[in-house]
Amino acid sequence: MPKDFLSVADWPAAEIMQMLARAQELRSLHRAGERPQTLQGRTLAMYFEKPSLRTHVTFEAGMAQLGGHAILLRPDQVGIGTRESPLDVARNLSRWVDGLMARTFSHELVELLAENATIPIINGLTDRLHPCQAMADLQTIANVMNPKDARVCYVGDGNNVANSLILLSAVVGMGFRIATPASHCPPAWVMERAEAIAATSGGDISWTEDPLEAVADADFIYTDTWTSMGQEDEAEERRKIFAPYQVNRHLVAGAPKARLMHCLPAHRGEEITGELLDSDRSLIYEQAENRLHSQKAVLERVMLPKGIA
Ligand code: CP
Ligand code: NVA
After folding, report:
1. Which letter does DSSP use for residue 122 in this model?
2. Stated pTM of the model
3. Burial 45-73, CB ≥16 within 10 A → b, else e
4. Which atom of ligand 1 is least distant from the CA of 263?
5. Of the CATH numbers 4.10.220.20, 4.10.410.60, 1.10.8.60, 3.40.50.1370, which one belongs to the domain with range 145-282?
6. Best mutation site among 222, 263, 287 for ligand 1, i.e. most ligand atoms within 8 A of its Cβ?
7. pLDDT tens digits along 148-174
8. With 80 as the cut, is the pLDDT of residue 257 above it?
9. Whole-angstrom Cα distance, residue 150 to residue 16?
């Protein structure tokens, strides 16, 4: 099994499903007030090059609730690549802590850290992928219906969140349609990898430029910000490019039963209307809640490779 959790596509379907089952169990235990102490004495370092609410709080609270501890590292303190090489940071942390969760701009940086660390590295979002978000989204979908029967439609920017959802859909055999402008479609390597995985899992992954066509009969309609962290200079141009992809009353009329998803943070009135975000059809706070439970399952899986005693 991989040492690290950098991409959901690195993990076999059976392992992903086991983590999902454990996440469901941890959610039930948490809601019943129980806090299994499976990571007692373990420490997670957390490195953020970009802002975060959900990822930061759910990893830190998750470690504390499992009996462990988390340390926040800021780039201005550590200076990976400026004060110290990624190689030396990875080798030092490997001597002290049991895992590192990193949110970086460059995906290559988390790969470099993983190559040079003996401890597991968890991808807390890079410009390319957001695997922890996809795991929480899978849990959210599984609480509504069997993911293998689900038709998920993503509308908007072909970004890190979309990439991980595409790959996870392929791994677990979920139906996934994505509608983006041709200029902002998911990278070819993501579609090719997903199609190769889906050929054995039974997943059905497709892209279109037409959002109305994409949402027809969807069980879930998902969107994310049009301007990801690091792209702020393009915000105005992006607002124009993505305007036809807004998730609004008109778009969702084509899928009257679809539940609505967003990884957050959301920009009300841009990629989705406030009316829909706050409607009964919205699953956004379920998704946010499930970050806690699904990441605890990931933490246990990578920090206790021999399983829970
Ligand atoms: N969805 C998500 O990753 O949220 P944060 O950026 O607040 O961590
Ligand atoms: N695509 C967004 C996700 C934020 C959780 C970004 O990268 O900023």
Report:
1. E
2. 0.98
3. bbbbbbebebbbebbbebbebbebbbeeb
4. 1
5. 3.40.50.1370
6. 263
7. 999 999 999 999 999 999 999 999 999
8. yes
9. 17
